[in-house]
Amino acid sequence: MKPLNIGMVGYGFMGRTHSNGYAQANHFFPCEYKPVLKAVCARNKEKAQAFADNWGYESVETDWREMLKRDDIDAIDVCTPNNLHKEISIAAAEAGKMVLCEKPLALNQADGEEMCQAVEKAGVKNMVWYNYRRVPAVTLAKQLIDEGRLGRIFHYRANFLQDWTINADVPQGGAATWRLDAEAAGSGVTGDLLAHCIDTALWLNGSIKDVSAVTETFVKERMHSETGKKEPVKIDDACSFFCHFDNGSLGLFESTRYARGHKALYTFEINGENASIRWDLHDLHRLEYFDHSDDSIVRGWRSVHISDGEQPYMKNWWVPGLNIGYEHTFIHQVADFLKSLETGEQMHPSFRDALETQKVCDAVLDSAAQRAWKDV
Amino acid sequence: MKPLNIGMVGYGFMGRTHSNGYAQANHFFPCEYKPVLKAVCARNKEKAQAFADNWGYESVETDWREMLKRDDIDAIDVCTPNNLHKEISIAAAEAGKMVLCEKPLALNQADGEEMCQAVEKAGVKNMVWYNYRRVPAVTLAKQLIDEGRLGRIFHYRANFLQDWTINADVPQGGAATWRLDAEAAGSGVTGDLLAHCIDTALWLNGSIKDVSAVTETFVKERMHSETGKKEPVKIDDACSFFCHFDNGSLGLFESTRYARGHKALYTFEINGENASIRWDLHDLHRLEYFDHSDDSIVRGWRSVHISDGEQPYMKNWWVPGLNIGYEHTFIHQVADFLKSLETGEQMHPSFRDALETQKVCDAVLDSAAQRAWKDV
Amino acid sequence: MKPLNIGMVGYGFMGRTHSNGYAQANHFFPCEYKPVLKAVCARNKEKAQAFADNWGYESVETDWREMLKRDDIDAIDVCTPNNLHKEISIAAAEAGKMVLCEKPLALNQADGEEMCQAVEKAGVKNMVWYNYRRVPAVTLAKQLIDEGRLGRIFHYRANFLQDWTINADVPQGGAATWRLDAEAAGSGVTGDLLAHCIDTALWLNGSIKDVSAVTETFVKERMHSETGKKEPVKIDDACSFFCHFDNGSLGLFESTRYARGHKALYTFEINGENASIRWDLHDLHRLEYFDHSDDSIVRGWRSVHISDGEQPYMKNWWVPGLNIGYEHTFIHQVADFLKSLETGEQMHPSFRDALETQKVCDAVLDSAAQRAWKDV
Amino acid sequence: MKPLNIGMVGYGFMGRTHSNGYAQANHFFPCEYKPVLKAVCARNKEKAQAFADNWGYESVETDWREMLKRDDIDAIDVCTPNNLHKEISIAAAEAGKMVLCEKPLALNQADGEEMCQAVEKAGVKNMVWYNYRRVPAVTLAKQLIDEGRLGRIFHYRANFLQDWTINADVPQGGAATWRLDAEAAGSGVTGDLLAHCIDTALWLNGSIKDVSAVTETFVKERMHSETGKKEPVKIDDACSFFCHFDNGSLGLFESTRYARGHKALYTFEINGENASIRWDLHDLHRLEYFDHSDDSIVRGWRSVHISDGEQPYMKNWWVPGLNIGYEHTFIHQVADFLKSLETGEQMHPSFRDALETQKVCDAVLDSAAQRAWKDV
């Protein structure tokens, strides 16, 4: 068993999902490599230590630059707010570390491009945690598309609907609500939620040519956790866009945090000439599939329960009928990364892959600002 | 166009569904015969007249015996409470009229047998209004089974769940609640609801050999609308039974009026070696279908929306995607009856067919009373 | 009972739905007025006669101008392809007839404005058959919104997805496929399908300020039924748009005939501060409702089966749990129109109401052509 | 942190679920105690070693009696086929070890009674792995019932449907298919599947008075993995029963391995006077809830997505909208057991609790054999 020594920066929600991925991957996916949790880094030493104790990190750092100097660390996992991704990732690459960066890659395309160049110049392994590619149902969708079952694609539609910011008393800024602060987050739902939808779409349906978008900020001012005062809200609360894909299909995307009744409703649907697919994060263990070649009197949407050994990742889990959940996407991503170290194959999505999503996000925000179509 | 002159006895809920069937059948199903609404009969002349005016009955009678004497009437439609089915049907047969009787056929098997002998001796056309055979999804289920798609059948389960009698203040007896009065209804859910489930089951899955049942009466006394006093409730509020079918499959049936949240949830599911089917009255325009021969990675229950021209009855209605509802089952039954007059074929379910359901109901009630298995 | 003498122009799919509405309305909804089917008009006399025989029209005309001259006709029902709506409606108004026109009102806003002026000048009763307002679940949605249950509205989204034109061998033009011929239809999915979505949206959520749209024509050439030759397809196969409503909410609309697996999936969802609603034509007897004021541990989307007497229109139908279907929307519209004659209240949607939808359709098509936002 | 030293007997499917529970409990649920994986025991040393390496067991034993002698082990986890539960559990209790036994407790009531007496006499902590009590949705159901939200209960129905033994070529006996061998398993679906349904029912709805059952063995002979010959199948392939609960409600239970289309469809539904609940293992993160006190026009079954911090166990997992799965039931059971060590409270279900399920199973099998009602 070869160790993969991990140094993590940040210990928030994503710190937990990644740590769990490191802890569990080898229990279910036999790999030559095995993550070793060497250090977690955060400014608050006490909280970092509690996190380290819980997950078994061997040490704690309070300055990520110090962590980069350590020889006993192979890979840096960047779990910070978005505005720190660039600096840490580039420094990590320059220090010769593998870089595993949370999504979105960067605050904008220019920053992302620098980050790509840094990891490519350094020749270090890199990936971005767009975890939804590794929901078994989503991976199966990719397989069905690659097998040509859908035929010519006409439509791709996706949305990501939440409702947690409807209350105007939710503040912006700070540990729990930095996603509402434009400085820390870069954008609102576009970078947080649509980025997931776009990453999946690019993977399943290919490149996007141009976009036309609209954004809205429903609550114009919120208390800022740091200033303690009401400040203008500069992120997008909602964003919709349509687009043309290179393959000739039309895309339609929507995201909001003001859709009462939806906690995290990420759905997509793809309509092809011969078959259609849809999926929904709230019931992530099912893939809906419509096959036009079925005998017409019994043709209908099939609700496929993804728990059989023949379906992606599932032979490593339990038995047919028994579900896995959200956290498993990160376990799969760790397992696939470990496997890529073994085989030497390029892990996806790489920084370069994630930059494509960044380009679309930038075009979307530009389009909304200028009320005009924008090429990607 | 040949007239089929109808004389109806009763004008309650079923009087409306049948009248609508007569009014609509020829609008959608081209037939040589066409119902003509000659007379409706009820003791209350004023109410009968209002009903006649609404539906276009040409005349009103207050004594069904008088109606049987009329030469201008071809068929007697028996829409009365259950305890009058026998007397009217036999007299109608003896008067040479066709007899179209509401379900259940009779209060018990012995009465039903007399009724069968009467219509057979008289050689008159006859049928019983087990309308659910003619939900397009149910008719399609019959077709799929007859085509052999399911293979060997292992399980048949059905239930009919309602919640309208939970309130102990609902009275028994009288026009609206005669179904709670054992004298008028014969039995409770067994004759009212399970009879539907049994009729469908016999049609789809063949004969039943033996049964074991349990019944319950949750509310022991209710005000009687006629006496104005609390009287013991003698009907079954709930009834469950299992059974062996002749084809070796196991049956499981349940009915109740105490299933909070279900208005009229009639469902059945059939599990065969190769395929399974399920259906639900609350969404009657869908048939759920599972085909084990589907490619395993995309195998799942299909939700088949029954609205295409290739599906039973549907080419006579609207266009794909647009639903029909409950009342259409009666329209289909009228249309099929009219067609049977044209072709001379036996209409189903005949009195004789319906007697089979009566036998099972009797065995179920006997089994529950004696806490023992009973042969049918 | 007062007669309302009907003269219908056209006898296609909508001719059937309207005729059924006239035949059935009084069976279920007690009204002072009752439709009398005086005449149906079509160029093909034989087919018109067959239609008249089936539905009980007393006479047949082959020139609608002749029909307008008849004194025994009170109301003209315009069921022709879209390009004839204007001429017939204006002439009918000038002849002093009530005008009941199929949707969309006109080929464009200018024509629609002329039609409005004609009926208003003549002072004749008028309505447009946007039938989906009278699905009981949709009417209930209107009631819930008017009661203020949703609070401030953030999002309105709707789509209308079909798949019947994917096959490139479907022709354009002619009786069955005039909807693919720009000359007869005016537009493609915008006027055919989105017009329904827009009418409902304006009714439920108020006026639309501006729109940004995209259209696509996937199959560029189709055989024309009249010329027998391949001709360019000039209609929109798919159309999406977003918009701002006057109430500050964002709208998102999509329609296509290339969504494999959907026959007629008209859905809408409205997200308010306090509650959300969604509805789906494929299961039109259900309304999904989410109420944020529910106790949080048991809060969820409710699937409300619309069949109780307290829900709109349903006390006139069957009993709880038993569904009605598509055709009933037209029966309700006829019944409401008859009632409006009695009360003198304005029937909705009037020509003027429908003109608002036409304005949005025009803005949508302009926006798509010019790749720019358009005010309505 | 106090260690809880675990010695596990067996390493099959349940060995994996338990090991994962031990590995994960403290990552998510802060506890004073923490499991330490001291030893795994199995006859095949090589396989046991591989299992130990994967999960981090410190040592391997090949004779469970040796393991009982070790002072460094606090608790014995019995994961063997059913026919070994008794001997190992009693010996473990006599050795002063806590005993954590897989379900069903025993082959029959008499054995179970001996086991209860052994742990009670020894005064050792004990529990049985009826894991479905700790699906958050099921735990929430318990809470809702205990709060009195359902009122008087009328009906409890449950089923557990699978389809994996339809193929007559599936053998009996051996590591993968011992559940088809009566000697190893005791019974078929009754002990394997119905036992789960009964445990949940007793927990949620109280004691069962009497039962009436039917069983069926559809495939009469199967190859035996040990003899290599076709042998009669002595287990029940399917079993249904009804029962009376002490609270006056009727129960209806069904289980089979011949329900084509269902992998592991464990469902239950409870109908109370005021509210109803239903749940389904295939979508285990949802609880369906119907509350009759809802305003009637918007009353319907709520689909409650169990992922909020206020719902049982969920504040320790991710964020609203993100699912956990099957394996988490074991993590919860471990966490609750660790907590019970801290608080001294009795862990449920204890051996004594599980004996109640055993009594019902015995009565069910007796009833089926004798075709008669049996008291529990």
UniProtKB/TrEMBL annotation, chains A, B, C, D:
Domain of life: Bacteria
Pfam families in UniProt: GFO_IDH_MocA (PF01408), GFO_IDH_MocA_C3 (PF22725)
GFO/IDH/MocA-like oxidoreductase domain ranges (all copies): 140-278
Xref: InterPro entries: Gfo/Idh/MocA-like_OxRdtase_N (IPR000683), Gfo/Idh/MocA_oxidrdct_glycsds (IPR050463), GFO_IDH_MocA-like_dom (IPR055170), NAD(P)-bd_dom_sf (IPR036291)
Domain Gfo/Idh/MocA-like oxidoreductase N-terminal: 4-128
Keywords recorded for this protein, A-Z: Oxidoreductase
Protein name, per record: Inositol 2-dehydrogenase/D-chiro-inositol 3-dehydrogenase
Source species: Novipirellula caenicola
Gene this protein is translated from: iolG_17
